[in-house]
Write a structure and sequence with these properties.
Blueprint lengths: L2 E4 L3 H13 L5 E4 L2 H10 L6 E5 L7 H9 L9 E6 L6 H7 L3 E5 L3 H27 L23 H10 L8 E7 L2 H7 L2 H18 L5 E7 L2 E6 L7 H12 L2 E4 L5 E4 L1 E7 L6 H27 L14 H10 L1
Parallel strand pairs: 1-2, 1-3, 3-4, 4-5
Antiparallel strand pairs: 6-8, 6-11, 7-8, 9-10
Helix pairs in contact: 2-3, 3-4, 6-10, 8-9
Length: about 325
């Protein structure tokens, strides 16, 4: 894997070279500023598979550099890891919004760095495989139902791994976060009927409906696979949890889509949530996001079971504050 590391501190660059070499990553290029990094990228005759950008640099910082690299078509999905001191984590909202994939903290912990680079290498290989398949195929390949993929041209969309990394990066004790998951109830049926272009369009349409509702709020959104679009609202919003769910249900329910075959299909959706206002640990935020996904999955299961006249196979997730009963009590009845 070919890596470009950018940091204005030569000592950090030397340390990175040593740590990366010990981890087996020896194909490393370096730059001491964002301007130099862009020059290196433009001059190279070989592409890069991963970037490591210091988040705080004089002049153009790592966040702006991330945005510039993401604007280059060949690097629109390439893993970008932000390098930061622990007390710089308040900049991570901007970094992930600009397109960062993950982060590592100074001082470097070799095991953590190796794990995160291993994940980046896995993503890079998957992207190369998809690119090769796209060259061979006239249309977008149909992903597996459980396979997450990057949302296209959706504001504040990040990949599923980046969303988890963002949740881990938020300083401990942060409050005012709301977690949601939109579930396409008939995802399996639509996936069987769809081409790759059809299915990407369906998931992106659902994500667009979410972003229309959240316009003006601070959020990140991701496709989690299995017909689930997960999103976290952070930093406060004028809408309550209940209002967000109602608005999304109103905007996204019953969307009509015409498949390449000419068949018109309806997108049936439900929305699950988990309020995390009192969460005090990084792991708890990840669990809150998973709870939102499980909530949506449970609501969808109850909806299908009711239509079939069956009892749900799994118990419904517990809901706080009576929100589940108020919104979906008819489904569970």
């Amino acid at each position: 894997m070919r890596i470009l590391a950018v940091d204005d501190d030569p000592i950090i660059l030397d340390l990175l070279r040593t740590v990366l070499s010990e981890a087996g990553y020896t194909d490393l290029a370096t730059a001491s500023s964002a301007e130099e990094a862009v020059s290196v990228i433009e001059r190279t005759d070989r592409g890069f598979d991963c970037f490591l950008f210091d988040i705080m640099m004089p002049g153009i910082d790592g966040v702006a550099l991330t945005g510039a690299v993401r604007a280059m078509p060949q690097y629109a999905q390439t893993p970008i890891l932000m390098v930061s001191r622990l007390d710089d984590k308040h900049h991570f909202d901007r970094a992930f919004a600009a397109g960062a994939s993950d982060y590592v903290t100074k001082p470097f912990e070799p095991t953590e760095l190796k794990v995160r680079l291993g994940l980046a290498e896995q993503v890079s290989r998957q992207q190369k495989a998809l690119a090769a398949a796209a060259v061979d195929a006239p249309q977008t390949p149909l992903p597996r139902l459980a396979e997450p993929f990057q949302l296209d041209d959706v504001p504040y969309a990040i990949n599923n791994h980046a969303l988890e990394s963002y949740l881990q990066s938020v300083p401990v004790g942060s409050s005012g976060m709301l977690f949601f998951a939109l579930k396409l109830v008939n995802a399996s049926e639509l996936h069987r009927k769809s081409t790759g272009d059809d299915y990407h369009f369906i998931i992106n349409s659902l994500a667009d409906a979410v972003t229309d509702v959240l316009s003006g709020a601070n959020y990140f959104i991701s496709h989690a696979g299995n017909g689930v679009v997960s999103f976290v609202v952070h930093g406060g919003t004028d809408m309550t949890e209940e209002e967000i769910i109602h608005s999304i249900m109103s905007d996204a329910s019953g969307l009509d889509v015409t498949l390449a075959s000419g068949e018109e299909v309806v997108l049936d959706i439900v929305v699950g949530s988990s309020s995390a206002s009192r969460i005090t640990s990084r792991g708890a935020r990840i669990e809150a996001m998973r709870e939102a996904v499980l909530s949506a999955e449970g609501i969808a299961e109850a909806m299908v079971a009711r239509e079939l006249g069956l009892a749900a196979v799994h118990p419904m997730p517990k809901r706080s504050g009576g929100l589940f009963d108020r919104l979906f009590g008819g489904i569970a009845a």
